[in-house]
Amino acid sequence: MSKISTSNTGELLLAMRKYLDEFPGDTICALQIWYEGLGGCGVPTPADMEAMNAVLNTLEDWKPIGKVRYEKFGAQNSFQRVKPFDRNKLMGGGEQPDKLMVQHLFKVGGLYRAPDNRVFKVVLSEVYNLRCFEVKDGNLVGKMIKIHPTSDFAKSLVEVTD
Amino acid sequence: MAEKITHSICVGGPIAVHTEDGVIRRIRPIVFDKNDPKGWVIKARGKEYTPNRKTQPAFIAMTEKNRVYSYNRIRYPMIREDFVETPDGKNRNTENRGKSGYRRATWDEALDLVAREIKRIQTTYGKEAVTALTSSHHSWGLLGYKLSCFGRFFKMLGYTQVLDNPDSWEGFHWGAPHTYGYYWRLGGPETFDLLEDALQNVETMIMWSHDPDTTRGGYAGNESTMWRHWLDDMGVQFIYIDPFNNFSAVKQADKWFAPRPGTDTALCEAIAYVWLTEGTYDKEYIAKHAHRFDEWADYILGKGADKKPKTPKWAEAETGIPAADIKALARRWASTKTMGGCGLRGGFGGVSRTANGTEFSRLLVQLFAMQGMGKPGQNMWTGTTGAPMDYDFWFGGYSDPLSQISNQPIADKTAVNCVTQKLYRPNLPDAILNGHYEWYGEGFCGGGMDLEFTRHVYPEPGCSKVHMFYRYGGTFMGTMLDTNKWVRMYKSPELEFVVNQDIFFNGETRFADVILPACTNLERYDIGEFCNSGNGGYQSHSQTGNSWQVVVFQDKAIEPLWESRSDYWIFAKLAEKLGWGEEFTEGRTELDWCKRFWEKSDLCEKISWEEFTKKGYYVAGVPEDWERHYGFRWFAEGYPCDTPNHKPFQEEGKLGTFTGKFEFVSESLLYWAPHDEARTPIATYKHSWEGHHSLKADKYPFHLISPHPRFDYHTHHNASTPWLWEIPENRKYINGNPYLIARIHPKRAAEKGIKDGDLVLLFNERGSVLCVARVTYRVEENTIHAYGSSAIYNPVIPGETSMDIGGCVNLLTPGRLIGDMVPGMAPNSTLIDICKYEGPIPEGQLFEHKLDAVAKDADPDTPTCKEIIEGRGFEKLQAMFREKYLKGDAKK
């Protein structure tokens, strides 16, 4: 059971809305909302899952994207934000705030395009530096490049999503 | 006489190698020069602490010379004498594997045969009919490591991969993530910068099932020994909990608790009982960071379904530890700043390799959570990792996909295995012998908690069974369980062809049809960082187990001895014979590959290739004002994770559990495995399926514990390093055979009529092993202690499941996995009996004649195995190589 009743649609919608507004990611599933957003204890019943998915289906800023694998939950029916989450918001405006890791603005394994059209793959994210290789014709080439996530160059990078 | 100094790394740490006239004369630690950076300085309690300016390898590293010229080096390619290359793979006298002798072959003959068999088997049955498997650590170096050149060859070939199990820390891998996440660290805690935290704050260290001087922080040699001395000197209390008063405990323990093996979980529950009833836990922390704590507390207090309070008195009956001592332990822990954990890196101890290992691991994490894990001086840290490190310098470790020649960016093209079928290492013999095997779990599940619950079937639907086994380095007789089944597997005609590529004529090597001699890493080029096991779904930043971050150019000290060759050379030649040699090498020599690792890391920014190869090593300094990133501090204080090796949910300040909190009732287990009897949603003490409550205990009343060895590393030193046999606590050389020491309590020894130094037989229904008794109060009364991972396996009837005189106690351990859904091994849940042995003592080790026959055939003057073991032959060998060098190689 959860702290929020899934049979009360209004209450459920409010609780989910609140959680999703603060959720810093772009992809979500009902199971994650159950445990993190609703304080769920135990496995949600099919009715609980149906109720949460029904709410997700009504949200205009989220769209269904089918099954996505989560490292904790395995493959789950998922929803994606229509407009990507502004992670700068979470990080307090993009500058390096106290105790926040600006490197988290970049995804390990993600591809980023520079203004000169070169594409970089983030292969590692240590404490300060993102470590990247340039990608040419699908291959990692050249030397390992360190990019500080607050540098002007980092700010100029745009995630390649297609 | 020309002396040359080169450098290398072995599993015991980095070394400098002195060579004179083509012969290795001396091995020593690397001593830093004035150009190397200053060491870090930790200021704590009015003092300053800084490391010695040298690497501090383990003593096993100092024996590399003995190992290079070992009596059991495989000198030439060999083919089993009675192997018949039948066109259909049948009638090959497979029943004689392990018994038969060998004949010398040329490299071309041996490799042509291997190539022909690979082609025949893959053409007849399919790509998946070939499987291959390495030991955990053949030797050190990014090029020669299993995930590198072995991985590249077999991925390019296409083969049935054998999934490794986390055989050193099963319980933490399969259990702890369900309490605190960290599946991407394979269940181990993060310990960044905790050395400084400990030096400044800790008052009590709980060393549970932990012998750091023996297990050496993994591959970190003796680097952390000094840290624990510092703590000792400042008055920190060390409490050791282990059925064996281990080698670290005897010199350091302020108090030693000896629980009956397999009952540690009951001890955890009783400690929690004391804290709950006395209110001595961090209630504020638990209120904020724990999930379903009250339900768990009810269980501990006897308000749960079993209605049994987990009192110290209750635990006394299980563990044998007096209730008053349990209370004192709990009170000391709660009233002082306490760090600790289980085994090297916090989660590797032998107790995690018991039937109750997952539950113990979960409860141990819960205990640390109850005391505010992550606050200064309160953490999971066992004095072996967490040194300051420059996170701005990166060089890859062996599990980093970025640091393997099978992958980009090191290779131009990534090698991809086209076969999806898999096998599981502990049960490989079951799969081969029964033709069918099913299990859960991907082995190492660093890629996701869900991977623990993946169901596998062998053979995969539509796939062929395996008919060829290519074994590479080490011997599973000493590291897997109930290992007589490996003997039975090798004799099966299902395996039409068996290859073994190894440096030494190990117990398992002797079951192969073709043996390919690899050289040691002192005879080839490689490159590697001290104690860096990488970040590829593994426990990252293991190099913080060192005081120094050292990358070594592993130079060739001498040319490969006899006809041995580097692993890379062997795979490259084999690839050439299979028609894809150029694709395998991409036109690179071994040195070229080494340079790629330099070029694709931060190393190339720090030192030129020429300077690096000339100097032999690079030390990455730690900035004077390095920024701290204390493990778990981010969670305790509620800010996004600032330690390296993070996951997206940590960015939000959450743990990697379903709820993001410490789960005292596991939601992930309720979701994934609600009916799992080995791992219940609340971690509980459960009677072992092989323990003192078992019916079997009437017949076999002793618990055998076989921890990771002090005088070896896996199976890589003891068998090939007779110098180690001179250590009385290790082995006793009798009649040409080094018998393993087995420890027994004086009271029980007297009952059995056993005296110190007697030959004793350890036995149960799975086998029997002949050892030498050490009668000592250092073991718990019901326990027999004998180190596992014996590299020496010498059955008195070679090739049969007979009595072993090599000390291979893994013949006695149960093949049963921890649970139906927990595919972990539990060697420390073994019941045996012991008796004084008064039968005949065999002459020698029972296999040397096979090596001697081939060696003498090639060179009648060469010393025999026994002569080399006993010293005179060792000197003669070195003299022969010196002469050869002066005649030929020196002129070159």
Oligomer: heterodimer
Low-confidence stretches of chain A: 92-100
Strand order of the largest sheet of chain A: 7-6-5-4-8
Please work out how many helical segments of chain A DSSP would assign. Answer: 5
Number of DSSP E strands of chain B: 32
CATH class of the largest domain in chain B: Alpha Beta
Distance between the termini of chain B: 15 Å
What is the average of the pLDDT values of chain A?
87
What does the radius of gyration of chain B come to?
26 Å
Q: Structural class given helices, strands, pairing of chain A?
A: alpha+beta
What does this molecule look like?
The complex is a heterodimer of chains A (162) and B (892). With 162 residues, chain A is of the alpha+beta class. Chain A has 2 domains: 9-81; 90-159. Chain A contains 5 helices and 8 strands; from the N terminus they run αβααββαββββαβ. In chain A, the strands form 2 sheets. Chain A has a 5-stranded antiparallel beta sheet with strand order 7-6-5-4-8. A 3-stranded antiparallel beta sheet of chain A has the order 1-3-2. Chain A is elongated, with a radius of gyration of 19 Å. In chain B, α2 packs across α18 and α10 crosses α14 (323-335). Chain B is an alpha/beta fold and 892 residues long. Chain B starts with a strand and ends with a helix. The mean pLDDT of chain B is 95. Classes of the chains: A alpha+beta (162), B alpha/beta (892). At the A-B interface, α2, β5 and β7 of A face α24 of B.
Structure, briefly:
The complex is a heterodimer of chains A (162) and B (892). Chain A is α+β, with helices and mostly antiparallel strands and 162 residues long. Chain A is 27% helix and 30% strand.
